[in-house]
Amino acid sequence: MRHFTLKLLCATAVLVALSALSCACFLQGRWPQGALAGIGVLVAACLLVAHVRRLASLVATFMKAILAHDTTLRLDFGRRDPMLGDLSRDMNSIAEIYHESRSQLETSKLYYDRIIKIMTHEMRNYVAPVISITTHVEEHPECYRTAESLREVVGLIHSQSTGIRRFLDSYYRLTHLPPLSIEAIEAADFAARVMQLVQGEVASRGLGSGVCVFDVSQGMALNVDVALMTQAMLNLLRNALDAVEGREGPSVAVTISMAAGAPFITVTDNGAGIPPEIAENLFQPFFTTKQGGNGVGLAISRQIVRSHGGDLRLLHSGHTTTFAITLPPQ
What we know:
Blueprint: H1 4-27, H2 31-67, H3 82-139, H4 147-175, E1 183-186, H5 187-204, E2 212-216, E3 221-224, H6 226-244, E4 252-259, E5 262-269, H7 276-279, H8 297-307, E6 311-317, E7 321-326
Parallel strand pairs: 2-4
Antiparallel strand pairs: 1-3, 4-5, 5-7, 6-7
């Protein structure tokens, strides 16, 4: 498709010129010359149609490939024709946007399918004992005539109802983060704020005050929603403290530094590490290995960091486990 525009203009010009020549010949009574020019008009018209149809065929094939979810096909009309070069770039951009949107839609569908399955499973677990005990009360009321028996029934219903509310509260927190309120804060002040809040967690586990250490780059500032980012950090630190609880020489290290002009925060513990089969599901909502855990802490932390334009990921897990927060350049 090189020089498409030039060929199109030339074919059109030849077609117009031959048409004018044919008409002039017929008007002058020069029938043989007019017929010959007419044949030239037909040939030029056929060449013009074939030239345009080739472009239309390429575009049609490209569109069919998009509809067939083929992510490999690309239009390349070369750089010698500016018009077609722009067209190919635009069409390829459309294809990329389409495939990216479709991929995001499929990912979102899988995500929400998983959430619905988890919610259904959890709700059934909470409701099943209530249905069982209320059915038994309905069928055998004579067994629940004493205050003690009624207290047991009401206690079970209350416990299960509280569990349902706690589960729904976790889901609400996951899906309803407040709007960001970005402000500038010195990294040292942010670290001091987090350190002060985490001391209660350290004490409740019977760990020494020196178990959690902060290393902050001097003169560094953060542009964050302080409350939300503090919540994200506390979630990470609680998990780290859980990992080192009961271990000899427990250690949790937090570093706040700059990497390639962007804030880089790590939380490292010397716990037992995270097995690969668990690591791949860490950020899935409601996935937990803790007794009584709700499985939303890491999911909320990642959502908070991503709402800032950054990301939270598991950097590595072996003899030590490190989670890393990256934020946009300041």
